[in-house]
Amino acid sequence: MDEKRLENFEKMLGAVQKEYEDAVAKMDELKAKGRVKSATYHQLMGRKMMYQNMLSLYELYDLIPADRS
Q1: Dist CA 69 CA 64 (whole Å)
Q2: At what angle do helices 2-32 and 39-60 cross, to 10 degrees?
Q3: What is the pTM of this model?
Q4: Using an 8 Å Cβ cutoff, are 66 and 59 in contact?
Q5: What average pLDDT does the structure give for the chain?
Q6: Could you give the C-alpha distances from 21 to 4, 5, 28, 39, 47, in angstroms and in order?
Q7: Structural domain boundaries of the chain?
Q8: Distance CA 14, CA 33 (A)
Q9: Which pLDDT tens digit goes with each residue over 2-61?
């Protein structure tokens, strides 16, 4: 059971990291177009903050290295 749990955690961690990176990339695109006041940008900011918080919790509990940038 522990191996399956670890495998599932690794999948989830990868998904969270990917979603975070995708949100940042889309925000950068919108920023370059001068659309930082758009609803889409604000929604992406909320998603980015949520995923950033999750990654910070993983760091807090030493599940990922603190220098994950």
Answers
A1: 11
A2: 140
A3: 0.86
A4: yes
A5: 94
A6: 26, 24, 11, 19, 11
A7: 2-60
A8: 29
A9: 999 999 999 999 999 999 999 999 999 999 999 999 999 999 999 999 999 999 999 999
